[in-house]
Amino acid sequence: MRRLLALSLLMLMLPLRAEMPRYAAVFDAPNQRMNVRICLDAAHARVRFAADSEWAMRFVSDVRRSDDRALEADDDGWNARDWRAGECLGYRADIGAIAAQHKQDIGWKLGDDLVAAPQLWLLRVDGSDADGADIDIELPAGWSLSAPWREQARNGKSIRFHIPHTPPDWAAAVAIGHFDEERIALPGGQLRFVVLHGIDAEQREKLRAWLARVSRAVLSAYGRLPLPDVQVLMIPVTSRHGEAVVFGQSVRGQGNALQLLVDPAQPATEFDKGWVAVHELSHLMHPYLGDRGSWLAEGLATYYQNVLRGRSGLLTPAQAWDRLREGFADAAKAQYDDTLEQAAANMHETHAFRRVYWSGAAYWLTVDRDLRRASGGKLDLETALSRFRDCCLPAYTDWRPDDFVAKLDELLGVQTFASRYREFAALKEFPDWRKLYAELGIRTGSGAHLQFDGAARDAQWRDAIMAGVTRSASLPAAATRNRRPSTAME
Question: Are 345 and 217 part of one and the same domain?
């Protein structure tokens, strides 16, 4: 008996054991607050509930244990000792105040629609299980929610999601408001499409049809969506220079999402001319590679924003090659003192975006050509990325860039990616794109139009790159819509 008692006391003294937290949240629409409970099934000697930062603690109030026992507050969280099995922590989160910040990766308010980073209103349980958490959210009648989380079930007013575990500093957005969510079914997954406040039915249909068209471009890589479930948030804005898509970003916190700032007043033809959506969708094909690997990540998206549009009819192949030529030629004009890897690591301080993006694009074009040439067309970039999708995506942790290219080599049984990676990372000048274009049989003719030499060494691989996927890929199915019901959530 004494041994059992001693063992029980020892277990209570140990740090928090791996456990999946259970969240329950009820949205208080009149006060724009979320009432949240976090429950843990096991007993613990100590549990720490962490806020995103000391600054973020201002959005959380009325923090209390279910039995009203003491909590110890520190700089960015609360500590609970002698946690009992099945106990819960309750608190209120001010979603309206987060949305009122009107800052990227924090929150926005658009009419009645609210967007708030979940890291600012979902307290973390330090030491909790790497498998993530489950959350049940209850919304009042007429309200909808869009999140990067994976939906598990609906029961009356409540929706259950699974929240994957990702690093706490990865951005994410949860939208709550009066909107419809449409699901565009694709081979391999779905896009969950939401347009926030302020558009009419005609504009919404224009945006939905455009998203379906650009998703076809992504399918021209290897015939499938890279990820099974992607949140797509479109935020209406008024562009200053007539752009249809003003800004876009791929975000990976607590799932996978795209955020696009669009001007719904622009004509459909302007949307089709843009590259931003295809660029951001292409980021779904790789894991997060950190600052040091940003030239790989942004280079892949820059390469594919042109190649995939050339394959899918948004550009002609000649136009796609010309867009690449323009980018290479412009980035090659500058003189550089540091290596490409150094430039990528410091890109946000030095603003060397053009060099990083377009050097990376030259890397992927070079690797794509190398694979096709060496294998006689049996291997290509898409084969490697398709196999990476099957083995390693979704990726909820960051990858070292050298590990990523080594994995691509392993999947194809080659050394092409890593050897070219070392070569390009060490460059202190822009890659020799002119030599590459000459080998592909692409040169500038009269009137600045490109000419294509069918007798060039790599002419057949040039044409194969723009021909695209040979695997069968069906077109996106008709979108389904989760409409706001008259009484409660479905």
Answer: yes
- Residues 280, 221, single domain; the answer is yes
In the DSSP assignment, the letter for residue 103 is B
Report yes or no: 143 and 27 within 8 Å, Cβ to Cβ. Answer: yes
In the sheet with 77-83, reading across from the earlier edge strand, the strands are 72-74, 77-83, 44-50, 124-125
Helical pair 317-331 and 433-440, crossing angle rounded to 10 deg: 160
Task: Tell me the C-alpha distance between 196 and 194, whole Å.
Answer: 6
Question: Does residue 477 form part of some domain?
Answer: no
- Distant-in-sequence, close-in-space partners of 391: CB < 8 Å, separation ≥ 6: 407, 411
Length of the chain: 490
Last residue of a domain, one of 130, 155, 176: 176
DSSP-assigned letters across all residues of 184-224:
EEETTEEEEEEE-SS--HHHHHHHHHHHHHHHHHHHHHHSS
Question: Do residues 202 and 144 both lie within one domain?
Answer: no
Q: Is residue 1 part of a domain?
A: no
Number of separate domains in the chain: 2
- Cα separation, 18 vs 11, whole angstroms: 13
Least trusted range by pLDDT, from 83-87, 127-131, 421-425: 127-131
**What are 250's strand-pairing partners?**
258
* CATH number of the CATH domain containing 116: 2.60.40.3650
CA proximity to 223, closest of 231, 234, 215: 215
Let me know whether 201 and 128 are in one domain: no
Q: What is the pLDDT of residues 34-82, one digit of tens each?
A: 999 999 999 999 999 999 999 999 999 999 999 999 999 999 999 999 9
CA atoms within 13 A on the CB side of 180: 17
Backbone angles phi, psi at 383, to 5 degrees: -60, -45
Question: Which residues constitute the domain of residue 399?
Answer: 189-467
**C-alpha–C-alpha distance, residues 372 and 378, integer Å:** 7
Structure tokens at 411: 């999947």
Contact 455, 463 (CB under 8 A): no
Enter the DSSP assignment of 43.
-
Give dist(CA 48, CA 79) in Å, integer: 4
Asked if residue 181 is part of any domain, the answer here is no
Output the pTM of the full model. Answer: 0.91
In this structure, are 164 and 276 located in the same domain? Answer: no
In a domain, 315, yes or no: yes
Strands, DSSP E only, in 124-195? 124-125, 133-138, 144-146, 150-155, 158-163, 174-177, 181-186, 189-195
Query: How many of the other CB atoms lie within 10 Å of CB of 152?
Result: 12
Counting Cβ atoms within 10 Å, is residue 241 exposed (0-12), middle (13-18) or buried (19+)? exposed
Q: Are 406 and 421 in contact (CB under 8 A)?
A: no
